[in-house]
Amino acid sequence: MKFSLRIPLLFVLIAITATLAVSCLSYYNGRTAIENEVISRITDVNILKETEVEEWLYDGKALIEVTASNAYFKDEYASVIVSHDPLIPEHMAIHKKIIEDILMPVLKGGLFFELFIIRLDDGLIMISTDYVQEEKYVNDMLYFVNGKEGTYIQSAYYSMALQKPAITVATPIKDRSGRTIAVLGGRFDLGYLSAIMKKQGEFSNSIDTYIVNKFNFFVTEPRFGSDYALKKSVYTDGVVKALAHFDGVSLYNDYREKPVIGAYRWSSVLESAILTEVNQSEAFAPVYNLQIKIFFAGLGVILFSAIIGYLLSLTITKPLNKLVKGTAKISSGDLDYRFDFKSKNEISRLANSFDIMIKRLKETLVSRDKLSEEVKIRKKKEEELKISNSELESFAYVASHDLQEPLRVISNFSSLLSNRYREKIDKDGKEFIDFITDSTVRMQKMIKDLLSFSRIATKGKLFKNTNLKTILKAAIFNLRILIEETGCDIKIGKMPGITCDNSLFISLFQNLIENAIKFRSGKKPLIEINAKKDSNNWIISVKDNGIGIKEEYKEKIFIIFQKLHTKDEYPGTGIGLSLCKKIVESHDGRIWVESDGVSGSTFYISLPINIKKEYINET
């Protein structure tokens, strides 16, 4: 994709991301705030409705109890109520008087639409303000069964006698002795209950409050239904939770399958659920309107960002195109081309850097013929170096062979002289012979070490990947007798895999471990070998608790045949560390030592992690 398109697109993506973030955040915050406000209001409405209904029921309960305790029932009408017979004229007069003097005044209060007296023995309605209901038996109704024992409110049920929903309260009528002689009942006017439910707040046009009994039937008419009371059942999420005696608020579909926010409560007095619901579409309308506004505002921001991005891209791509054309000319060989930028921005500075680079390139450029000649010269020198190395190895071999032969003769004749004429030679002569023998042995060892030193770079083995711990185990195995004799303790940390000549590296670590044991102090030798990664190198350390190395000798110890101690103090030819240095350098590495000159030394070996060098077998 062209750079001129990337910048506008980047601006557009940033604008879209910001718009989406603002939109989502505003929607979430707005929805949460509105949801909390609606929940608070409908919860308050639900509690208020329940309170009003309970007050209505308690008023009716109190009124029916007061009526049942009327003195006329206890004195004048007690016997008539017990032995009521509608065929006796006297009883009929009393029947009329009870209705007119006691029941009708209560009925006019508006809480009840019917008051009636039930015979205790068989549940017969003897007296009622609704004459149609007289002579009917209600012995199996809960309000009669429980009303004999005390005041009882039977929650909403469908009355077959009335052919409509009813809530009935009943209480016992007692004589002066406290004996129950009948039951007084009153049917609440459910029109008042529906009126309580239909009182809606002003904050919503879709608010709906209704009551559902424990059998899942509507008790009152919902706002958006007709003729539902005790005829239609409902099983919404709010109804189910309320009938399970839970109070709360949730989002669900109502009896119309409309999404609503609903508050639900269980009323123990009514033994029913009270629900108040508001349509979600109405509740969240302000949030949806805000989203639309944000959407159009976001489109404007995106369009503006695209224009700004395009204009900005022109200020960048124009000089870049000029830079591209210039580099094309330079790559074609025109080293006299120069960029001409007048501004002082980053691209101009880059162009100026190109000008400087081209100028220097032109000054230092070497022709192909000269480079080719230089390559030929270097190859010739490499061939000569190989020949020199081969000649050096041949010389070392011949020299060592020619030197060792006379040394063997000297050694043999010294031994012969010592064995045959030892008794005839005085003390000084014996010391001279011993000195000659010792010197020839040392000379032979030095020649052998020198030959080994000369062959390190020409051993003819390919490098291969090996775990360094395997090499260390081989070196320790070769020194096992010395380690056991001195009680040396060697601790090896986690080792990496390296690319090397295995035999040379075994010799390397064998020399370092042997030196650490040889140059020990009076205490038990302790050697610690660890490795760590440093940039592109492995740093391997070999630490001992020996006699240490003074500062002025740290470089000398790697010189061939350089010894810091006499042969009587510490035997050896002094070539060991020289061999170590040459082995490490043949692997493109470096070796050095750190010591305080008193309490031990630490030898460090730095090796490239990926060694590209390989040895090729030569015959």
Task: Explain what you see.
The chain has 619 residues and is α+β, with helices and mostly antiparallel strands. It folds into four domains: 69-192, Beta-Lactamase (2-Layer Sandwich); 200-286, Beta-Lactamase (2-Layer Sandwich), CATH 3.30.450; 370-457, Helix Hairpins (Orthogonal Bundle); 460-608, Heat Shock Protein 90 (2-Layer Sandwich). It has helices at residues 3-68, 71-74, 78-82, 89-107, 142-147, 190-198, 237-243, 280-283, 285-331, 346-364, 368-421, 427-455, 468-478, 480-486, 502-518, 576-586; strands at residues 112-119, 125-128, 152-159, 164-174, 180-188, 208-213, 248-253, 259-267, 272-279, 464-467, 489-492, 497-500, 526-534, 537-544, 590-595, 601-608. It has a five-stranded antiparallel β-sheet. Strand 13 and strand 14 form a beta hairpin. Helix 1 (3-68) runs antiparallel to helix 9 (285-331), helix 13 (468-478) crosses helix 15 (502-518) and helix 15 (502-518) packs antiparallel against helix 16 (576-586). The two termini are 59 Å apart.
